Amino acid sequence: MKKQLLILSAAGALLAIQACELPPVETSQLGFRGVGMEHVANPSTLQDSMESVAARIPQLAGSPDTDMVPAPAGTWENVQYLGHLSEAEFNRTMLAMTAWVAQETGQGCNYCHVIEDDGTVNFVSDDIYTKVVSRDMIRMTQDLNANYPEHVGETGVNCWTCHMGEVLPNNYWFYAADGERDLERYYVNEGARQTERYLLDQEAIRVISDQALTGDTENTSSIQDTEYAYWVMIQMSKDLGVNCTYCHTTARFSDWDESPPQRVTALRGVGMVRHANAEYMLPLQGEWPDNRLGPMGDGPKIQCATCHNGAFQPQYGAEASHATEWPAFQILGPPHDGAGTGGDDGSDDDEGEGN
Ligand code: HEC
Ligand code: HEC
Ligand code: HEC
Ligand code: HEC
User: Which of 148, 187, 208, 326 has a 20 to 30 Å separation from 33 between CA atoms?
Assistant: First the structure.
């Protein structure tokens, strides 16, 4: 009995030691001297995670077709957003999407394309929800790269950014059933559903008065509003793996002039996430099979961590998400001139000014 206890406590001590990081940690100064705006990181663990992230990125064969002469009319029958591609670039894109999204399924092209009774693959058919969803995802990816350069920058976004070889990204959210709580995976919270409101609606979270003490009747924020603001901020910090000083001078949280530039990038990110949810994720509601819906019956939605996965830049800024190598995802692609059916079914190329 005594011996068991001893082993137990030794194991406990080992666990406790493992939970600590070996020094030294590095601090980099982000703000003015003396204001305590420092980013604390452990170079060895950060290095590890950067290396393992980079190592997972699939090395895809081939380089982009720079001539980019669009495939002649009639090459495809039912291509709505990739009509600007040559046939070679189109095929390269299909191969890449297979690796980025469907790698773990082992189904290859068939993950998104219908297999007929005679065993042949019908690439034209839309009778499979994964293809319908993918088309929407292609549009969303094009839109984010084309219209949000001030957020996604040179790094850009492609399917790998969120999917990393798996059909389900690591982070997305649903409405929670009452009392249910699964913060790590679903990003929902009890009662007020703060972040959900934030990432769908146009609700700002300004709570701090611009005047001290009384006389300030402008600020009608309640304690609940303040709690809401901090809840959103804590989630945002977790999504990016940073602390408050990454975006704020903590003496004056609300002051934009004294905030690091990352805060403006973050605010643009909020607008971008709302756009992606409103324009692409919500309209998919009717397409999801039951096993993809949340406990309240709503479809999956995007948050900061869907792309960031706990890193200050998705994939730590590694080439994986480099959109410039992928002409399929740089502009809002036009429909391909089909085999004379004339049907480009509702694909709206006037979406260009989407932000
Ligand atoms: C992750 C989903 C996905 C995977 C995997 C995938 N495709 Fe596609 N495929 C699509 C979507 C979506 C479209 C329609 C694109 C559009 O409308 O702009 C499409 C269209 C096509 C078309 C055009 C058919 C036509 O005439 O309308 C061909 C050909 C094609 N895919 C071939 C392939 C091949 C070959 C593979 C495997 C290497 C593959 N696809 C893997 C999603 C996928
Ligand atoms: C901004 C993040 C993001 C990007 C970029 C993205 N996706 Fe998705 N995708 C999601 C989320 C979130 C889901 C919902 C997961 C679920 O089904 O619960 C999803 C679901 C899917 C599904 C359905 C999976 C299933 O089995 O139900 C397919 C297929 C898909 N995406 C294809 C693509 C393709 C192809 C691309 C690139 C053109 C892409 N996605 C880019 C976030 C993204
Ligand atoms: C990734 C950047 C980022 C991080 C990290 C971050 N914030 Fe924020 N914060 C913002 C942005 C952007 C706004 C403005 C949001 C808006 O107006 O909708 C904001 C607003 C606020 C406000 C409201 C200011 C006002 O005008 O009333 C408070 C308070 C705040 N943050 C506190 C925090 C705290 C506490 C943390 C750490 C737990 C934190 N923030 C971490 C970006 C960030
Ligand atoms: C669609 C994918 C995607 C989503 C969703 C997303 N981001 Fe980003 N974000 C990026 C990419 C890509 C970069 C890297 C840009 C670059 O290379 O300059 C980035 C960069 C940033 C940076 C700058 C980091 C630095 O120091 O360079 C901040 C801050 C940031 N994002 C905050 C957010 C916040 C907050 C949210 C949620 C409200 C969010 N992002 C949602 C893709 C995304």
Answer: 208
Q: What single letter denotes the amino acid at residue 15?
A: L
174 in Cβ contact with 188 (< 8 Å): yes
**Pocket of ligand 1, beta carbon within 6 A:** 76-82, 94-95, 97-98, 101-102, 108-109, 111-113, 123-124, 130-131, 134-135, 138
Q: What is the rounded CA–CA span in Å between residue 229 and residue 203?
A: 11
pLDDT of residue 108: 95
- pLDDT per residue over 318-351, tens digit each? 877 677 789 999 999 999 997 654 444 444 444 3
Place of tokens 């452990």: 42
Instruction: Tell whether omega for the bond before 24 is within 30 degrees of 0, i.e. cis.
Output: yes
Phi, psi of 183 (to 5 degrees): -60, -35
* Nearest CA, atom 35, ligand 4: 266
- Do 141 and 158 meet the contact criterion of CB atoms below 8 Å apart? yes
Nearest residue (by CA) to ligand 1, atom 43, is 112
* For the CA of 141, the nearest atom of ligand 2: 5
* Nearest to 84, CA basis, from 347, 353, 286: 347
Length of the chain as a residue count: 355
For 179, other C-beta atoms within 10 Å of its C-beta total 7
